[in-house]
Design the sequence.
């Protein structure tokens, strides 16, 4: 594994990060279009639900991944079934397979002692392998099963609370 190009940090996003997050979500959706088949609209944007619910709704949280002081990704979390549910996690392509994602994911899991749920589209094999590795490295006990949702099969990983 190649070393990260700078220190990896995870910071809680605020209202001033809204535009940054919306732009990073567009990059994520572009990457996912290989799997989803989605195309951008007439303005060149992918149709996505806004980041407002993660910034404004109770229990929601948005995080920015910074590497060497530059934005490099994000995580969107919301409460589901009494767990912190990871809705989205993204790291820009130029920093993948360099330890940035694993370090950012570990920092994210450290933000909450309670249980976590991570759901990954089963046919996105690289993401499934990545998250299984992160879960194993977390030291938390977990369950891993398949669930169907919206016509798609997800690998559903639930991590127990710390302690």
Sequence:
């Amino acid at each position: 594994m190649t070393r990260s190009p700078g220190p990896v940090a995870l910071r809680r996003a605020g209202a001033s990060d809204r535009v940054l997050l919306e732009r990073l979500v567009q990059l994520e959706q572009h990457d996912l279009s290989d799997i989803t088949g989605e195309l951008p609209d007439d303005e060149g944007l992918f149709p996505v639900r806004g980041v407002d619910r993660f910034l404004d709704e109770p229990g929601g949280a948005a995080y920015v991944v910074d590497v060497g002081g530059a934005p490099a990704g994000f995580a969107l979390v919301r409460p589901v079934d009494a767990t912190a549910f990871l809705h989205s996690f993204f790291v820009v392509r130029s920093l993948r397979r360099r330890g940035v994602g694993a370090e950012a994911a570990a920092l994210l899991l450290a933000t909450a002692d309670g249980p976590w749920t991570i759901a990954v589209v089963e046919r996105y094999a690289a993401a499934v392998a990545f998250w299984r590795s992160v879960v194993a490295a977390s030291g938390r006990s977990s369950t891993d099963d398949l669930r169907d949702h919206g016509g798609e099969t997800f690998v559903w990983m639930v991590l127990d609370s710390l302690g």
